[in-house]
Write a structure and sequence with these properties.
single chain; alpha+beta; Enolase-like, domain 1; 45% helix; 21% strand; globular
């Protein structure tokens, strides 16, 4: 009888010990390496910057133009920064819209894609979702329009999430009406999204001259006074840190 009680006491002790065990969640800051930051902060070479016509006209009646980089440039930069085996692009959902951006289109296709970057050595994964769109034209296979919309979304995710060619898309600020915070009809990024992404890039910048140039662009842009003040304060603080 005593042996039975002794064994039961041992089992109860083991159960109590099991209940006391806990799992600790260790959260660490994810940082890019100096090499990666140097690549991201390097201005986009002029030969890779393209120009296309957008909706609307300038005050002088001339057509509005927007600058961009091709999808191949974004893919090449992702490979250079993270390695071809460490990132992935996936279409999460897609659909069609009857919205026509010009007289020849039959509608529009849109996609929501997800850019995933994995660091196998440190064991973390970062996701960035973004939307893209492209017009549907007569005689053009639907798959081609879908592919173009996917490329549009990838470029936005790479620019907003990691600053790839962000200096090119920053210039779209001039195309945004003052005070606008939603995504514009021609697919440009919202002011709030640009301010958030530019703030990250400013904090990572190691070049005072580059920071001063960004400050000039901010003051000349169509950003709201509130957004200008926010960015200028971040730029001044970063310059002070680098000059210590």
């Amino acid at each position: 009888m005593e042996d039975i009680r002794h064994n039961m006491a041992k089992k109860k002790t083991r159960k109590k010990n099991k209940r006391k065990k806990s799992v600790a969640l260790v959260v660490s800051e994810v940082k890019l390496t100096d090499r990666q930051l140097a690549i991201i902060n390097t201005p986009t070479p002029a030969q890779f910057i393209k120009t296309r016509r957008t909706r609307g006209k300038n005050q002088d009646g001339s057509p509005k133009m927007a600058q961009y980089v091709e999808g191949g440039y974004t893919v090449a930069k992702l490979n250079e920064i993270f390695g071809p085996l460490n990132w992935n692009w996936e279409i999460i959902e897609h659909g069609q819209s009857e919205r026509k951006l010009d007289n020849t289109s039959e509608g529009e296709v849109w996609v929501r894609g997800r850019l995933a970057v994995t660091d196998h050595a440190k064991g973390y994964k970062i996701f960035k979702d973004s939307f893209g769109q492209h017009s549907i034209y007569p005689g053009v296979p639907f798959g081609d329009s879908l592919k173009s919309a996917s490329t549009d979304a990838l470029k936005k995710a790479a620019a907003q999430g990691f600053g790839i060619a962000l200096d090119v898309y920053w210039r779209q600020l001039e195309e945004l009406p003052r005070g606008e915070v939603e995504k514009s009809k021609n697919g440009t990024v919202s002011q709030e999204a640009l301010v958030a992404d530019l703030s990250k890039k400013v904090k990572a910048c190691q070049n005072v001259a580059q920071l001063m140039e960004w400050g000039r662009k901010v003051n000349e842009s169509q950003l709201s006074a509130k957004h200008k003040d926010t960015l200028n304060a971040i730029i001044r603080h970063r310059v002070q840190e680098l000059e210590k």
